[in-house]
Design brief:
about 550 residues; alpha/beta; seven-stranded mixed β-sheet; 14 helices; about 30% helix
Length: about 550
Amino acid sequence: MRYSIRGARRGPALLATSVALATAAACSGGSATGPSAAPSPGSATTAAPTSAPPSPTPTPTPTRTYPLSSAPLAVPAVRAHEAARGPGWKPAPTGGVVIAANSGGLADEGKLIAGELGVPYRGAVAAGPGDVELALGGTGAPESYTLAVRDGRVRISGPDEAGVFYGTRTLKQSVKATGAMPEGTVNDRPAKPQRGLNVDTARKHFTAGWIEDRIREMGDLKLNQLGLHFSDDQGFRIESDSHPEVVSAQHLTKAEVRRILALAAERHVTVVPEIDSPGHLGAVLAAHPDLQLRSATGRAPRGAVDIADPDAAKIVDDLLREYAQLFPGAYWHLGADEYVALMAKDPEAAYPELARAAKAKYGSSGRVQDLATGWLNDRAAVVRPTGKTLKAWNDGFFTGGVVDAAKDLEVEYWTGKEIGARQPVSYLSQGRKMVNLNDEYLYYVLGEPNDFAYPTGRRIYEQWTPLVVRGTSPVPAKYDAQILGARFAVWCDLANSQTPAQVAAGIRLPLAALSQKLWNPTKPTASWDRFRALAEKVR
């Protein structure tokens, strides 16, 4: 918008009228009083009346004209920006952060962004010049927000606290990238509801501080889910009251976990705990070797408990109940991957004790896979009363048996390399909901064993989409709504291959690229080099 000062106009006709009136006034009274006329004796000396010169036309004071604004620079990029003309907004000592009426729940978000911008937090007061106002309200999608910059102020509003928080992340990044937030209005929302990082803390111990740093990074990238795989063959990494004997020497205390959870809640990140079973239980078996699965030849496969033994179910259920109370989030991961008995070409021949147990429980058609599916359903039944959404790895779901996995289990698809591998469409066509952890693009496996290579941000940014669930080919677009999102996964198979600091550095750009592809479904317009430079600048 172009601004101008509008003054009184003095056109030629008005000027001529003024001159005529002045002349008439000078000629009234019947005597000449021109410039050469002498004053009468005793009279006061006054200036002779003459025709008034034309008054100058006032010149308006020009105001600055601004070009149309550009979209703010942020990672992920905003989905819609309505450009406007104006100076935008910059942090200034005279401005602050305030909370709108009926929006008291935004105090944490307000204090955080105020500290990051270096301006005061003033709480629930009316917004003034230069202020940033946070407000709850509206009917937008979950996690959506509107960020409006006009008249030297910023207003960020959304239907929930998470959306407003994400608006503050856009503001923070724009100021960090350019020093300002551009004039205009941003309307933004995520394409996928589940967006995150998965960390294997069982094979490698990560400190609470390291995990908290990842949560801060995730919040800024608008990622909202942190998976913690804290039990495996190499370690059990969270303090336990019910079974302290299974806990590794290096572990997180429950106090540290609660601290992590508090920060996660502040940054709108949900922590998804995973106790993987019936495989990957080596840390439990180290304390309870009597629960070990054995093959027909007496081989004891690492990490596999005997699923026909009720004592194995009891100890796992004890742990599930204990940690379901510790973690208040909306999700729980049951694991179910890579159970060694089902990786054999003929499970019934290799594990005859399991085969007999399956027939005893499910009839003559019962097989080892039915016993494993029954195990998964029983563990789900333990956690389900907490109201959590339940997840399991894709290779824990089987077809053709007499028992089917519970319908409410979300499929976390990671591999197509297992025996009898099923394509993603096999699950999706049954109506299953799915989260993408494609091991081709999203698996960061320490030491790069088994032909794994460290994934790059560039490859994710340029080639991957949420529809690319397995390998490099996408599933049909008609299944897009069933794919709820994705997580980038860190697995510590060769734990000493990288330090925690190296892991953090190695996953930084892949996480940024993932955030872009999960937030905005359109193909990015910026080149990888531009995106990478921006990601480095706003981190």
